[in-house]
Write a structure and sequence with these properties.
Layout (H helix, E strand, L loop, with lengths): L1 H23 L8 E6 L2 E5 L8 E8 L2 E6 L5 E5 L6 E10 L2 E2 L3 E6 L11 E7 L2 E6 L7 E7 L5 E7 L4 E5 L6 E10 L2 E5 L3 E4 L10 E12 L5 E11 L5 E3 L2 E6 L5 E10 L2 E2 L4 E10 L9 E5 L2 E3 L8 E10 L2 E9 L6 E12 L4 E13 L4 E7 L4 E2 L9 E10 L3
């Protein structure tokens, strides 16, 4: 009987010891990652284990495990490796005599002839996206883009097979973002590139606002013994997003609402960036019977958030002077958009010396324009939109000019 009791006590003590040891051990490190950062080196990273003082890092050597290091940090670089070789690692947390469970990961070093570490040449925020750029790699088959918020857990956010840019749309906000690249060629994937960081700040909510800041309307008799109504409306984008002017129709009525004429307004330019000023212009002929009638303008504005970013040309040396066909605006236009263009629309807003908008002139250029080319242009008053029969250079106090591609 005594032997049975003694055996039970020993078994109980052993069980208690085992339970205490199990309770005191650490769980396996989470998010263990092994990445080739050179053809002969692997970088290991893992998440910290609460209470751990150090970590045992081991590599499989045949059927045995070889201890490489016991770092206190959560990263380790294993150097002196062979290219195109598979390696298996395991990592556990330790604190004195207390040890944890291993986390295991297998990865191969890149083969010889794979692409070198691709470098991020530019990292910037544009609107709600982070733009990652790199230099062109002639043998590239694909480029993988990885992102992390803690330098441990990296997520592949994109793969491209051509080009030198990737847009990471709406990444995690208000934290440091870590980006790196990995490229492949016919021999497979190469090493991971150097990490670069940026903080993404969400842009403010899109706010479409605008205001009509000046209105000028005239009714004049014409040589054809009828009346010509003309309206010029200066508009400013007061919001934080580009706005697009669609087809805007209008009615001309008397004070009782009787329809005298309907028409269409033309916009210059068609897209306004935040803070910019543009204008609408319209003209219609009326019967001379309405000579003494007060004409009421009723527009149906068609303005929305632009789906496009306006692509602008560069303008320089703009001046207004007398030309062969009357008053003329002269200047130079340069294509610095980064690619060949075939259509440029130029709009020039004319302001009096009292800073009143008195007209808008425009022209279209249909020509093959290689990137970097510069040439002259001129816009005469003939056939253009002004509030007066004749505009002379001495009437003009300043100009606002736009030149952009037509994207819609």
């Amino acid at each position: 009987m005594k032997k049975i009791v003694s055996s039970l006590m020993v078994a109980f003590m052993l069980l208690t010891f085992a339970l205490e040891a199990t309770a005191a051990s650490f769980s396996a490190p989470k998010n263990l990652a092994v990445r080739a950062t050179a053809t002969n080196a692997m970088t290991l990273t893992w998440s910290a284990v609460t209470g751990a003082k150090k970590y045992d890092v081991e590599v499989q050597d045949g059927k045995k495990w070889k201890k490489l290091s016991s770092p206190s940090q959560t990263t380790f670089v294993h150097k002196g490796l062979k290219a195109g070789t598979k390696y298996t690692y395991r990592v556990r947390a330790t604190a004195g005599k207390t040890v944890g469970i291993y986390a295991t990961k297998t990865e191969s070093t890149p083969k010889k002839g794979t692409l070198n570490s691709p470098l991020i040449s530019a990292l910037k925020q544009t609107g709600d996206s982070i733009i990652i750029s790199w230099k062109k790699l002639s043998e590239m088959r694909s480029m993988e883009i990885y992102r992390s918020t803690d330098e441990v857990i990296y997520k592949r956010v994109g793969v491209v097979t051509s080009g030198t840019q990737y847009s990471d749309v709406k990444p995690p906000a208000n934290v440091t973002l870590y980006y790196m690249l990995r490229a492949s060629n016919s021999k497979g994937f190469g090493v991971y590139g150097e990490v670069k960081t940026i903080k993404y700040t969400p842009p403010p909510p899109q706010k479409m606002e605008y205001k009509i800041i000046s209105t000028q309307e005239h009714v004049q008799s014409t040589s054809l013994d009828d009346l010509r109504w003309e309206g010029l409306y200066e508009i400013q984008n007061t919001g934080n997003v580009s706005i697009h002017f669609g087809l805007t129709r209008f009615d001309l009525t008397d004070t009782n609402g009787r329809i005298l004429k309907t028409g269409t307004l033309f916009s210059f330019p068609d897209i306004l960036k935040p803070g910019e000023k543009g204008c609408f212009w319209g003209s219609e002929y009326l019967d001379k019977a309405f000579a003494d009638t007060k004409v009421v303008f009723k527009p149906r504005w068609n303005i929305s958030i632009s789906k496009y970013n306006r692509v602008d040309f560069d303008l320089s040396d703009i001046e207004i002077r007398s030309g062969t066909f009357g008053t003329t605006v002269f200047g130079k236009i340069a294509n610095n958009t980064g690619e060949k263009q075939t259509w440029a629309e130029i709009s020039v807003l004319l302001y009096s010396k009292n800073n009143e908008l008195i007209g808008v002139w425009m022209t279209n250029i249909f020509e093959d324009m290689e990137n970097g080319v510069e040439f002259g242009f001129e816009i005469s008053s003939i056939g253009n939109r002004t509030l007066y029969d004749k505009v002379t250079p001495d009437m003009v106090g300043r100009l606002i000019a736009y030149a952009n591609t037509v994207q819609y």
